[in-house]
Structure formats: C-alpha cells, structure tokens
Amino acid sequence: MAKAFKFELVSPERLLLTEDVVEVVIPATEGEMTVMADHAPTMTTIKPGVVTAVTAAGDREEFVVFGGFADILPDGCRLLAESATRVAELDREDLTRRIEAARAEAEGAVDHETRSKAEEFLGQLTTLEGAILPA
Q: How far apart are CA 130 and CA 134, in angstroms?
C-alpha cells in the first residue's frame, strides 16, 4: 500500500478538504502533476481544472479549482485555491459567467500581453467546461 501524507485544499471561503491521502493530481500551470508521499519540495501555480485526491481509505475526492498555488513537501501538500468547489456541486451558470467574463476581458484588452493572458484563461475555462460538464 502507498504511503499516506497530509493534503489540504483551501479556498478563501472555506477549508474544502484536510485528509490523509496517497495521491493527489493537480492542474499545475506547466501540466498536470501527481503528488505522492516523499515528493520533492515544490511550489507551483495552479490553472483552472480538476484536483483529484485519493484518500488513505481509498475514496476518490474531486474538486474544481479556478487558479491558485500549491506548496508540496515530502510529508504534505497544501493547495491554496483562488476559488474551488466539489465537482458534484459545480454550478453550470457560475462557470458560464466566468467564461463570459474572461471572453469580455480578452475582447476588451488594450495590449497584447493582457489579451494573451485573458485568452489563455478563457481557453483553460472552456477546456474545463468540456471536461466536467455533459453537453
């Protein structure tokens, strides 16, 4: 059996999960990462996506995050999300509002850098929408 470590998922609104887990998959900015016990110390930014945690008891917990960062140590991982919710509790209208706001920001951008960042965020949100919400 895999070695367990402490995982915390925190949003500004609440502590979503604090649990002993054997694996956490996070949507890091540079690509999806799987974190396990004894992971090398790492800090990474998080893009919109799904965080999947496998508890020591074998349960699978899934959360949608909308950015943030993760602090990974050999004995634990703390993910501080800009906003997060359980996948099962995701509000389709909220996600649609976020996509429309990102689209408006991209269209109203006054310089290339701002437009590029807004378009990247919009792409991440639409990919997330397609991955977790049925058509």
A: 7
**Residue found by looking up tokens 């359980």 in the block:** 86
Give the residue extent of every domain in the chain.
5-87, 91-132
Q: What is the DSSP string of 26-82?
A: EEETTEEEEE-TTPPPEEEEE-SEEEEEEETTS-EEEEEE-SEEEEEETTEEEEEES
**CATH topology for 5-87?**
ATP Synthase; domain 1 (2.60.15)
What is the per-residue pLDDT for 72?
Answer: 97
Closest of 96, 83, 9, 95 to residue 52, by C-alpha? 9
Q: How confident is the model at residue 65 (pLDDT cuts 50, 70, 90)?
A: very high
- pTM of the predicted model, to two decimals? 0.79
- At residue 11, the 3 state secondary structure works out as coil
Q: Show the CA angle centred on residue 24, arms to residues 16 and 42, nearest 5°.
A: 100
pLDDT tier, 135 (very low <50, low <70, confident <90, very high otherwise): low
Candidates 133, 34, 11, 25; CA nearest to 80 is 11
Query: Using CA atoms, how far apart are residues 64 and 82, in angstroms rounded to an integer?
Result: 11
